[in-house]
């Protein structure tokens, strides 16, 4: 069973009396364990696609089935529950709470999942250790480097054991060497079986994926399996 099945999905924004077709009939299937890079020029629909895939926004028309759940038909409350359970988000700008320690940032997604505070702390510590931040548990974001902050946000994305990690330009604010470190973490997670969907402008970053889906004018114009012609440095 595919993890994601999208059928002729459309997203139309209404601005004044204008209709903006951000997605104009997208069909896409993603299986468990895939590592997909979404590419395409500015305005081609990548963010809209990520918002729909990430259950932040619903399609105007078309079917989206995520891990057996028909997302298109859900009410917003149920959408939020599915999102919190199924998806871990990583952003370009980290989106960490600045007055809050690394471990407390990582605990956030568990706040409404009925986990005891003791177990929350335990799981957050383990998630931070798994990304090499076991010695930075009680530091605040401004006491951490960009790469360390992104590791915190990866730990936060992992802590509810989601079926998918969605990363929107996760290396956009990082230098080349740090980008390689962060992408190596995604690669390791994928090697362990985690499904990863990544948006990036950078071909070097997309090279870490096994499949590249290219958007243009709200449509998929290319969908390539690059697993067998990936250059491993
Ligand atoms: P990308 O992420 O590839 O740059 P977007 O998904 O952000 O593309 O945008 C696709 C199209 O939809 C663009 O024409 C953009 O201006 C438009 N769009 C995106 N979000 C909104 C919105 N909230 N309201 C109106 N138009 C939007
Ligand atoms: P970037 O810095 O990578 O561009 P943004 O901060 O602009 O990322 O966030 C991208 C999208 O994700 C936006 O539509 C935003 O509303 C949404 N978003 C931001 N933070 C969260 C969050 N913690 N949970 C769910 N959605 C979020």
Automatic annotation (TrEMBL):
PROSITE patterns: ABC_TRANSPORTER_1, ABC_TRANSPORTER_2
MF terms in GO: ATP binding; ATP hydrolysis activity; transmembrane transporter activity
CDD domains: ABC_MJ0796_LolCDE_FtsE
Coiled coil: none
Annotated ranges, domain ABC transporter: 4-233
InterPro entries: AAA+_ATPase (IPR003593), ABC_transporter-like_ATP-bd (IPR003439), ABC_transporter-like_CS (IPR017871), MacB-like_ATP-bd (IPR017911), P-loop_NTPase (IPR027417)
Domain of life where this protein originates: Bacteria
Family named by the database record: Belongs to the ABC transporter superfamily.
Name under which the protein is recorded: Putative ABC transport system ATP-binding protein
Organism from which the protein derives: Tumebacillus permanentifrigoris
């Amino acid at each position: 069973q595919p993890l994601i099945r999208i059928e002729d999905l459309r997203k139309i924004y209404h601005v004044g009396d204008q209709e903006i077709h951000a997605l104009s009939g997208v069909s896409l299937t993603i299986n468990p364990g895939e590592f997909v890079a979404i590419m395409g020029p500015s305005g081609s629909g990548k963010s809209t696609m990520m918002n729909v895939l990430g259950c932040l926004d619903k399609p105007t028309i078309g079917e989206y089935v995520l891990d057996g759940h028909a997302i298109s038909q859900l009410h917003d409350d149920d959408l939020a529950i599915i999102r919190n359970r199924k998806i871990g988000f990583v952003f370009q700008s980290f989106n960490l709470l600045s007055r809050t320690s690394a471990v407390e940032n990582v605990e956030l997604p568990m706040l409404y999942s009925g986990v005891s505070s003791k177990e929350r702390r335990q799981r957050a510590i383990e998630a931070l250790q798994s990304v090499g931040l076991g010695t930075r548990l009680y530091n605040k974001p401004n006491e951490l480097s960009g790469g360390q902050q992104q590791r915190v946000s990866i730990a936060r994305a992992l802590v509810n054991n989601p079926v998918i990690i969605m990363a929107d330009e996760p290396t956009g604010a990082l230098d080349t060497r740090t980008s390689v470190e962060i992408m190596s973490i995604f690669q390791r997670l994928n090697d362990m079986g985690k499904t990863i969907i990544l948006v990036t402008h950078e071909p070097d970053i997309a090279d870490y994926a096994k499949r590249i889906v290219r958007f243009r004018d709200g449509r998929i114009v290319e969908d390539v399996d690059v697993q067998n012609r990936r250059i491993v440095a």
